[in-house]
Structures are given as structure tokens and as C-alpha cells.
Amino acid sequence: MADNSSTQALFDLWKKQIEEGTQAWARLVGQIGQSGQAQPPDPLQFWRPFMDQGMAAWSKLLTQGPPTPELLTQWKQFLDQWIAAWQKVLEQAMGTEAFAQVLGKYLDQWLSLQAPIKKVAEESTEATLQALGVPSRTQVVGIARQVVDLEDRIEGLEDRLGALMARMDDLFKSLADHEAAAARRAADRVAQ
Q1: How far is 192 from 190, CA to CA, in rounded Å?
Q2: Which of 5, 28, 46, 190 is deepest in the core (most CB within 10 A)?
Q3: What is the DSSP letter of 38?
């Protein structure tokens, strides 16, 4: 008898979850209907006859004795059909413009609610880090930017120094060539 009562309790819990899910779906459908779009099918009307009949049959089977492998196989088939039916209904509902609008409004509301919370959390984190003497992310990013700027400046200076060194080398070579030419002219004058 205890086995049947625990099976019945499990079954009642599952039935309650199905009903709560259906009610949540109905609330969503009600919101979609309020948006002025065509009313999608009511899941309560769709599921109620199926669920009542199925619940009665399964309740009767489960109270007759312990679950058998055949009963469990039937249960799995029932769940597979149930999932396939929900998939079809959800695909139809989620493929509508009304659902997209409701989801968009929900996301906008969620983001607008999250912005102040995020700001307070960032300010709190900043204050905590400052009190602990630890640099914040903003400060570390600022230092990283300064280091990158310094690297760029150093590379620019290296390029300029390289250009100046090349010009000096050219000047020294030109000066050496000029001195050699002057020495040859002086040698040619002495030789004449």
C-alpha cells in the first residue's frame, strides 16, 4: 500500500507541475494577446482534454500495482509524445511577431532594471578596492593605455634616432670623401 501511495504522490506532483506550466504559458499567451496581435491558440483549451484523460488513465494504472517494464515503456512513449506536442505548440507561438515583440519588451525591461544594479555594484566594487588599496580595473586599464602610449613614443624616438644616425653617417662619409679628394688635389699640386 505504501508503494501505491508514493507512486500516487509522485504522480500528483507531476500533475501539479504540468498545471503550473500550463498556467504560466497561459499568462504568456495573455500578454501576447494584449499586444494587439492575433490571439494565438489557448494552451489550456488545447491541453486540458488530453491531460485530464491521460491523468485518469495513468492514475488508474499506477494505483493497480507496482510499475512494470511495459508500463515504464508506455510512460516513456507518453512523455515523448508530450514533448513533441509541446515542441509544436512552442514553435508556432515563438514564430509569431507578437512573441518577438513581447520578448523584446521583456528584454528591454530587464536591461533597464539591470543598469542601475550594475552601476551600484561597480561603485561598491570601486569603493572596496580603493579601501583595500588595490587598483581597480579602470585604473589598470588606464595604466595599460599609458604604457602602450609610451611604447609608441619610444618606437617613434627610435625611428627618429635611426634616421638621424643614417644622416650623420652620410655626412661623415661625405666629409671623409671630401677630405680624401682635397688630399688628392694637394698631392697632385705638389707632384706638378
Answers
A1: 5
A2: 28
A3: P
The C-alpha cell that represents 132 in the structure block: 583595500
Cβ partners under 8 Å of residue 43, min gap 6: 22, 25, 26, 29, 89
How far is residue 153's CA from residue 136's CA, in Å, rounded to a whole number? 26
Per residue in 147-179, pLDDT (tens digit) is: 999 999 999 999 999 999 999 999 999 999 999
Instruction: Record the cell numbers describing residue 57, joined without a space.
Output: 488513465
Contact 40, 92 (CB under 8 A): yes
Alpha-carbon distances of 191 from 123, 178, 182, rounded to whole Å? 90, 20, 14
C-alpha cell at 104: 523584446
**Nearest one of 79, 90, 86 to 40, comparing CA atoms:** 90
